[in-house]
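Sample log: Fetuin B.
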Amino acid sequence: MVWLVWMLFGIQVLCSCIAAPPAQGAGVALLSPRCDDAAVEEAADLALRQINADREEGYILSLYRIVSVREQPQETTGSVYYLILDVVDTECHVLSKKLWKDCDTRSAHSTVYGQCKAIIYINQARNIAHLNTYECTLQPVLPRYISSVCPDCPLDDSPTKPQYLDAAVQCLEKFNRQSEQAHYFSVLNVTRASMQWIIGPAYFVEFLIQETSCSKDIQVADISMCEPLPPEAAKIGFCKGSVVNSRVNPSVRVSCEIYSQQDPATEEENQEANQTPGKSKQDQQASDANLFSPPLEKTVGWVKILPPSDEDITFYSLQESQNEHKDRKPALPKDAGSAHSLDEEKAQVNKPDLSKPVTRPVILPFPEELSLSDSCPGAAKQAEGILHPLITRRPPRV
């Protein structure tokens, strides 16, 4: 009888184990979709848009190639995508709030390339795309690569050197004389700089400018004496300029874009990047408030730019820098629960049903194993050029 009791007890325990639901997120099988799949392309596009929108300094990153993607379907609707993206920087400053597809990538001699890891949750049924975390490591192209394709091209230099600040001030003086802005602007900081000998030393600078309290109706001899306007009221600008010092024909050239703090981009760009097509801002905010209960976590991430190096660093070896990066300073988080638009046509077909509660997605640690699909890494989105030697090697399977 004892053995019969133990047998029945064992059967009961076995049945209870089978009936018990698995722990949330435990033993989740990650899929390896194709890197050229339309849904993956869309996830990469949305992730990069939100990475750029989350940043407050630096330049907009453009997608070069999708390296790896793992997909985690959720129990209700939607999927979490774990992406590794090859990226290059563009000529657009992040304060412009432009879409990365609308920005020109840099010429070979000033290219900064790198890799981003991103975790993004996409729920097409509710037209939601929420970037959970991102980590990007960038580095300038090696000087020896540049010298092989453009030996006479200027190399990027430290923008903090006095000669570049002086060049920026000269460029800004010309802008202040010619612009129709109501107030004078002052130099905020130099963001990129280089020098080349032409018919004399030529300095090339990119810099941010800030609106001051000094009206252009009054002649001002020293702009540095003008107080900046409060941050909530001041306009910010991004300028590109050059100063050629020559005894025969000195020249100063400058072009600037001015961004309003309240409306840094066009209405169309703001709508496409930050809200569902066809909805007013007030309707969007009301919809966002009902999407998640409790709301999604805030986006947290960082972008690190390594100093110039003579080492032969590929896109893939940058992953080691990401893993070894200890001094992480998360980017300033944006409001949680913000919905970002998917394709307008899909949004019309899959209109969100706000009458049903949405379960928060299960987010796993970033997977160590890369995509198992033979389509990954995907094809380059841009002409290969100088970056081709840096991406020819396929990353090893982990």
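Observation: The chain has nine helices and ten strands.
Observation: Residues 88 and 113 are 4 Å apart (CA to CA).
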